[in-house]
């Protein structure tokens, strides 16, 4: 399979949202975005794709994060090598982001959503650097961020990632599978088994392609696949 990001509905919606955020930043209007949804729906994948396309900065939150560790990793992403005081790191971060104009993508935001010090600092970074910031997390993130009205009021784009449908899985098969044509009936079975989870669909497509390659099949349908498992079994 290709190492690429398929242009599913979620990815296209995220790309469109980022375009709006970029234009908003140029017009001095609110330009914080939020990508939310259940696990496996492609939020981090879309964020990573946009981060690359926009030449942005990506920082992943950790469960153990404090304000200091969050700022330290973000400063390192921007090129600060030595550890400094929080105030100095914040000053460096704001200067570098404002100077480069690079958008900031913050993944796994659920880990810091209950830490008001971190959220307030993200708002400070936004206010002082004036650039798009995209917060990525699970379904509860909007509810938690809403408790900090000063940050929540600056969110102008919110994409709720949805499970895959037949259009999405067909797009993934067409754009990612290189050696095999997978019939619609087999894609429908995979969609049902995966419950629309993009991560599991990707695993299933890879499994199907490997099977077809091993058996010399240029195309494969549900009858040829039979009752084989799409995903590794867990004992």
Describe the structure.
It is a single chain. The chain is 51% helix and 12% strand. The protein is an alpha/beta fold and 235 residues long. The protein has two domains: 9-160, Rossmann fold; 166-225, Helicase, Ruva Protein, domain 3 (Orthogonal Bundle). The protein has a five-stranded parallel beta sheet, sandwiched between helices. Strands 6-7 form a two-stranded parallel sheet. The chain is elongated and about 65 Å long.
Question: What keywords describe this structure?
Answer:
single chain; 235 residues; alpha/beta; Rossmann fold; Helicase, Ruva Protein, domain 3; 2 domains; 5-stranded parallel beta sheet; two-stranded parallel ribbon; 12% strand
The global form is elongated
Structural class: alpha/beta
Helix and strand pattern:
HEHEHHEHEHHEHEHHEH
What is the residue-averaged pLDDT?
A: 94
């Amino acid at each position: 399979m290709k190492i690429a990001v398929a242009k599913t509905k979620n990815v296209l919606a995220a790309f469109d949202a980022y375009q709006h955020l970029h234009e908003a930043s140029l017009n001095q209007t609110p330009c914080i975005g939020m990508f939310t949804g259940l696990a496996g729906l492609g939020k981090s994948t879309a964020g990573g794709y946009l981060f690359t396309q926009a030449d942005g900065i990506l920082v992943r939150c950790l469960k153990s994060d404090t304000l200091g560790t969050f700022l330290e990793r973000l400063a390192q992403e921007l090129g600060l090598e030595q550890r400094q005081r929080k105030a100095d790191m914040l000053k460096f971060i704001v200067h570098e982001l404002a100077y480069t104009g690079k958008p900031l993508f913050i993944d796994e935001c659920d880990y810091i959503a209950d830490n008001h010090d971190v959220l307030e600092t993200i708002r400070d970074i936004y206010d002082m650097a004036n650039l798009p910031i995209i917060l990525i997390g699970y379904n509860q993130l909007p509810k938690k961020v809403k408790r900090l009205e000063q940050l929540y009021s600056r969110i102008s784009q919110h994409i709720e990632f949805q499970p895959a449908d037949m259009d999405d899985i067909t797009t993934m098969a067409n754009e990612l599978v290189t050696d095999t044509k997978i019939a619609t009936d087999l894609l429908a079975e995979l969609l049902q088994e995966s419950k629309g989870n993009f991560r599991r669909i990707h695993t299933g497509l890879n499994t199907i392609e490997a099977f077809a390659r091993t058996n010399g099949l240029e195309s494969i349908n549900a009858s040829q696949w039979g009752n084989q498992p799409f995903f590794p079994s867990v004992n």
